[in-house]
Task: structure prediction
Amino acid sequence: MINSSKRYTILTWGCQMNEHDSEKMSGILESLGYINTDKKEEADLIILNTCLVRENAEFKVYGNLGELKALKRENPDLIIAICGCMMQKKEIRDIIKEKYKFVDIIFGTHNIHKLPELIANHNQHTRMIIDVWEDAGNIVEGIPAKRKYGFKAFVNIMYGCNNFCSYCIVPYTRGREKSREPEDIVNEIKNLADEGFKEVTLLGQNVNSYGKSLDSKITFADLLYLINDIDGIERIRFMTSHPKDLSDELIYAIKKCNKVCEHIHLPFQAGSNKILKLMNRKYTKEQYLELVKKIKDEIPNISLTTDIIVGFPGETEEDFMETIDIVKKAEFDSAFTFLYSIREGTPAAKMENQIPEEIKHKRLKKLLDVLNPISHDKNSQLLNTVQEVLVEETSKTDSTILSGRTRTSKLVHFEGDTDLIGKIVKVKINNTKTWTLEGTITNGE
Ligand code: 5AD
Ligand code: SF4
Result:
């Protein structure tokens, strides 16, 4: 049994999948008696949960490792572990072995449930322990999670990705698509509801292909109906949706299920058909816009968000203007925008006509100049409306200001008492900005 005074901290980079993995590692560690600390200097165990999706996330990890070397020198008993997507690459593990010899434990995305064993083994040896699995094997159920909030929770519905978009490292770090059994998902959410959770976000790299790896013929739409019936849960969110797999059946389910929030994150990545083909996205610009139209016709108050990459190899000015064209036509509520980042081992890394950095930056600026006024305009349409908001936290700078999200996932600031955190309130919107809304709590409709 580990001494209860041991403290841990986890630094997390990357997507919600990684964030939730860190919640699971926290759950595991706390079941071993570890206590969480925010201060690295106080920690007996520091875990770096890494991301490989873009170069800058990778660099930040190396920067942190440099800093940890000094901590380890001061406290040789400190255990330093690295896990996450970066560790799935042999070349990166070799760099850690070579240049960061003070690291104690390396593990991967498929074996976080082995953490107790890895720590116990480390306590018996002084050598670096490396345990990375190439494949997940069977899904491990029942890992405890210590969730960041007590009212909203991430729930994995599937792991991995089969799409192999040509720029993306995820299929290589997270493996092939595997869906969880619907009973396991429903039981987890029922337990969350019993504990007082109100909102769940269903996580998968491509939730629309949920169920394809299972023997039963269940679809993502079927799963939404099942979850919609769980008492106590008031909001259901999901991400991410691949446009090629978003069926009419799913649009209908989103419309029919009263708890499913009016928000779809639907990455389009690039506007030109030439680039979409090179990206291996399996849809055209026209098909994407047709899908957007269909969604908006069926669910008029839907909020649409997206991911966009600028500067993919071979992207000409004309190709880029097709991206701008989609942005204008689809009128996204907001977008995550990325400079294309070469990922060794992906097909796009070997493509000719890589785009110079300064052109990528110029295009990104141009893109934001089109996106931001649209976001502002979409938010302005909510002026004087009353929105249902799940209260999340107090503002970091002013404890009388609360923040929360609308069903459409927009961030709202308003005055209120901290005992409202975790509750759903009605807020009348009286000011709108590009990324946030402001309002006052109201009882009216
Ligand atoms: N370069 C830039 N952005 C990328 N993404 C994935 N791989 C890359 C890359 N190599 C973006 C995509 C994806 C999001 C999670 O990250 O837009 O949807
Ligand atoms: Fe990466 Fe494409 Fe899979 Fe998304 S769908 S994780 S972008 S390969």
